Amino acid sequence: MLSPQGRFTAEDAMDRSRWQRLSGRAGACIVMTLASMLAPAGQAFADAGAAQRPLLLELFTSQGCSSCPPADAVLRELSTHDDLLPLAFHVDYWNNLGWVDPFSSAAFTARQQGYASVRGFEVYTPQLVVEGKSDVIGSNRSDVSATIASARREAKSTVSSIRRSGKDVSLSIGATDSAAAGTSADVYLLSFDSNQSTSIHGGENAGRKLVYANVVRSMRKVGEWRNQPLTLAEQLQPGESGDRLALLVQEHAGTVWAVASTPAAGVN
Q1: What is the pLDDT of residues 85-133, one digit of tens each?
Q2: Residue 54, preceding peptide bond in cis (omega within 30° of 0)
Q3: Segments of the chain assigned E as strands
Q4: Is 231 exposed, middle or buried (0-12, 13-18, 19+ CB in 10 A)?
Q5: What is the pLDDT of residues 174-218, one digit of tens each?
Q6: What is the DSSP letter of 249?
Q7: What is d(CA 74, CA 258) in angstroms, rounded to the nearest whole number?
Q8: Cβ neighbours, 10 Å, residue 200
Q9: Packed helices 68-78 and 24-37: angle between N→C axes, nearest 10 degrees
């Protein structure tokens, strides 16, 4: 069943009757999204001031969800902004409806469910989680823009960097006066593909060729930051195959302290 908010929940993905009703707010959301698709990029995502680090945007999406391609397109546009790190996490709960998403992972579904547990979010696609604290329908440009602007004003930050040399990865995180005593956060290493495309042969998007940006292929916890300078040396493991890498420092409750990424392999 399609929810009144115009988004598909995890339960919807398992209910083939979800097309039976489409209520008021969903229709308004679709009209607003289509209208805003015509706006120039600068107008749709006005700069709200320089950030100390890129803001983290996580789109929970699926190739099996017919409402996701517009959100995937928004994420592609956002990926051109240096002050943002938009990442696409493909969930696996749509995989039993005629098409198995090759980028999907139970680990990414678990991450989305973790946000639901900690932040009280509903689980749905396309869901954009901004800075681990706010969620919005990923295809709703005006809400996405407003949520990013708000997050930019509230973002916390500490200096960080990530460098790659072949399979060797160096991660560095500094300390900050803005963290409270006892602050603790997990350090993650992610790999992602700058660009991907898939020809869909089944499910709700059958017959379409979908194009993606920043598709997450792996996410691994590599350490813990306690507001002290920290340097980690890692080696890429099998499955960490993305052409780009990212460093994320995030508290269990969702607060993000550091985000950094490498350019695509072979790009200086």
Answers
A1: 999 999 999 999 999 999 999 999 999 999 999 999 999 999 999 999 9
A2: no
A3: 8-9, 55-61, 84-90, 124-125, 127-130, 134-137, 160-165, 168-173, 185-199, 209-225, 230-235, 244-250, 256-261
A4: exposed
A5: 999 999 989 999 999 999 999 999 999 999 999 999 999 999 999
A6: E
A7: 23
A8: 18
A9: 40
